[in-house]
Design a protein that fits this description.
425 residues, alpha/beta, D-Maltodextrin-Binding Protein, domain 2, 2 domains, 6-stranded mixed β-sheet, 13 strands
C-alpha cells in the first residue's frame, strides 16, 4: 500500500475517533468494553512500572481493558512478527528500531498523523523533532519513542581518582580516551585483580558512532552501497580493535557478551563503557559503584547513535479508538515523567526533559544525555536493512576475534551488504 493510500485509510479511522473514546455503543444499548493488548519486551522493573501505568489508565478509562504481553527475551521481536503475520497483532506495541521501518513499509502499522491532527490534546511539537523525523517513513508517522536512546560514556569515578586520571570531559579526543584507558588498566596474574581501562561492545550499530566521529559512513548517500571499507571507516574500526589486541586496554570479550560487560562495569572491573540510559538500572544495583556520564570522545567530529524503541498502533487493530487512547497515555507527560522517576529513562518530550528530568537531584549529569540528542545520528533506516545487516555483524565478530584483518572484514562486509541491497525483495 502506497503512502497516500495509507494516509487516506488512516484519515477514515481518525474520523471514527471523534466520538467518545474507549468504548463502542450499540444503538440504544449500554457501552461495550474494548479489550486491547499492549506488547512490550522489558525487564521486570519496567514491567512493574508499566503495570502501574496500565492500572492508572484503566481507572481513568472504565470502558477499556488492557492485557499486557511482555516478552523480555531475545526472541521478543520474532514473537511480535509472528503475531502480526498470523493476523493477531497486539493493538499497541513496542518495537525495536531495526524492525520498525520494515513493518511500516509493509503497512502493518497505523499512520498516526491524521489522529494527531484531529486530537488537540496531543502535542506532537513537544517531542524532540529529530526523534519525530526518525519515526517517519515515506512522510508518514508510524510511531513515537517511548524514551530517548543515545550512547554516552559511562565511567567509574573511583577508578579514575585512584589512578590520578582526570575525569572525561566534553573536549576529550580518541587520544585522551586511549591514554586514560592505558593508565586505568591493571594487569595481574590473578584474574580477580585485573582491571580494564575500557570495554568495547564491538557489535553492529554500537560501532557506528566511532565511524561517524572519524568522518566515515556505513552506507553512501544513495543508501544502495555499503562503504564500511572506506579509509575513514576502516581507521575507526582499527582503532577499536587495537584497544583490545594492540594496546590490551579493552576487556577481551567474546561476541554477544554485552550483558557480561555491563556486569563487569557494575562490579568495578571496567573503568569506561559506552552505553545509554537504558543500562542505569543495572548500574544502580551496586551501591558501591560511583559512576558518572560524559560525551563519547571525538575525532574529526562529535557524533553518537540515536536509537529507536518506540510505540506503534497496529493497522489491523479492531479497537483503534481505544488503542489511540492507550498510545496517548503511554506517551503523555505523566507517563514519561513516571518512567524517568522510577527507571531513569530519558524523556523524548522536551517539556519533561527540560523540566522535572533535569531538575531532579540524581548522582549523575543528565544534561550530558539531553545534549547528546543535538549531535546524535540515526542508523541506516531502509526497509532492507534487517535483511543485510547480519553481514556486517558477522565480519565485525571475525575482526574482533582476530580471524580476519579489519581491512579484510570491512571489504567482505561492504561487498556482501552492497550485493544484498541489489537483490530484489
Amino acid at each position: 500500500m502506497r503512502g497516500w493510500a495509507r494516509r487516506v485509510l488512516a484519515a477514515v479511522v481518525a474520523a471514527a475517533l471523534l466520538g467518545p473514546a474507549g468504548c463502542s455503543r450499540k444503538a440504544g444499548g449500554p457501552a461495550q468494553t474494548a479489550s486491547i493488548s499492549l506488547f512490550t519486551w522489558v525487564r521486570p522493573q519496567e514491567e512493574a512500572a508499566n503495570k502501574g501505568l496500565i492500572a492508572e489508565f484503566e481507572a481513568a478509562h472504565p470502558g477499556i481493558d488492557v492485557t499486557l504481553i511482555n516478552e523480555p527475551g531475545q526472541q521478543a521481536m520474532q514473537k511480535l512478527m509472528g503475531m502480526i503475520a498470523a493476523g493477531n497483532p497486539p493493538d499497541v506495541m513496542s518495537i525495536h528500531g531495526a524492525f520498525y521501518i520494515p513493518l511500516a513499509a509493509k503497512g502493518a502499522l497505523l499512520d498516526l498523523d491524521p489522529l494527531i491532527e484531529q486530537d488537540a490534546a496531543f502535542d506532537l511539537d513537544d517531542f524532540y523533532p529529530q526523534l519525530v523525523r526518525l519515526c517517519r517513513w515515506e512522510d508518514a508517522l508510524y510511531s513515537l519513542p517511548r524514551y530517548a536512546s543515545v550512547y554516552v560514556l559511562f565511567y567509574n569515578k573511583d577508578m579514575f581518582d585512584a589512578a590520578g586520571v582526570p575525569h572525561p570531559s566534553a573536549s576529550w579526543t580518541w587520544d585522551d580516551f586511549l591514554q586514560a584507558a592505558q593508565r586505568l588498566t591493571v594487569r595481574s596474574d590473578n584474574p580477580a585483580e585485573r582491571r580494564w581501562g575500557c570495554a568495547i561492545d564491538f557489535w553492529g550499530a554500537r560501532v557506528y558512532p566511532w565511524i561517524w566521529q572519524n568522518g566515515g559512513e556505513v552506507l553512501d548517500d544513495t543508501r544502495t552501497r555499503c562503504v564500511l571499507n572506506s579509509p575513514e571507516s576502516v581507521e575507526a574500526l582499527q582503532f577499536l580493535v587495537d584497544l583490545k589486541r594492540k594496546h590490551k586496554v579493552a576487556r577481551p570479550t567474546q561476541p554477544g557478551e554485552s550483558r557480561e560487560t555491563r556486569e563487569w562495569f557494575r562490579d568495578g572491573r571496567i573503568a569506561m563503557l559506552q552505553s545509554g540510559a537504558w543500562d542505569i538500572q543495572t548500574f544502580q544495583e551496586s551501591p558501591a559503584l560511583h559512576w558518572e556520564v560524559a560525551p563519547l570522545p571525538r575525532r574529526k567530529r562529535q557524533a553518537t547513535l540515536m536509537g529507536m524503541e518506540n510505540y506503534s498502533i497496529a493497522a489491523a487493530t479492531r479497537h483503534p479508538e481505544a488503542a489511540w487512547e492507550l498510545f496517548k497515555f503511554l506517551l503523555g507527560p505523566h507517563s514519561q515523567q513516571t518512567m524517568a522517576d522510577e527507571l531513569d529513562k530519558q524523556p523524548p518530550r522536551r517539556s519533561v526533559a527540560d523540566g522535572a528530568y533535569l531538575a531532579a537531584q540524581v548522582p549523575y549529569d543528565r544534561q550530558v544525555l539531553v545534549d547528546a540528542l543535538s549531535y546524535a545520528r540515526e542508523a541506516p533506516n531502509i526497509p532492507d536493512w534487517d535483511r543485510v545487516e547480519h553481514e556486517i555483524r558477522e565480519q565485525l565478530d571475525k575482526m574482533w576475534m582476530g580471524e580476519v584483518s579489519v581491512r579484510q572484514g570491512a571489504d567482505a562486509a561492504a561487498a556482501a551488504v552492497t550485493e544484498g541491497l541489489r537483490e530484489p525483495r
